[in-house]
Design brief:
- This protein has about 120 residues and is of the alpha+beta class.
- It has helices spanning about 10, 30-45, 70-85, 85-95; strands spanning about 15-20, 50-55, 60-70, 105-110.
- It has a 4-stranded antiparallel sheet.
- It is globular, with a radius of gyration of 17 Å.
Amino acid sequence: MKSPTYPSWEESHMYQLRNTVTVHYGKFREYHAAMEQLNEIARQRGWVEAKRFVPVAGVDNQYICEWEYASLADYERETESFYTDTEAMKVFRDAAELVIEGTSMTELLDSAPTIA
């Protein structure tokens, strides 16, 4: 039996942006619609679309979005484009009104390196 081969760290390296929020009760559907709208804008602009998750168990009304980038430069370029896009920022700001203040958390993760 042949042992599996795994891609090198360089081949599988990526950055992952994760944003976690808790949405006000009764506003989840509106928030989800806003995230769908932001993904539509991302498609139109050629940006990375968010993968969207909710916990199976854990914090109620929590909503998690994740984006994957091949490089830190890709992340920085797209973030700059997003922050300067009037349409995207309007949807983003409107969605922020649906979030419980103080619950938003953003992480930027790097692939774990293989150590010698």
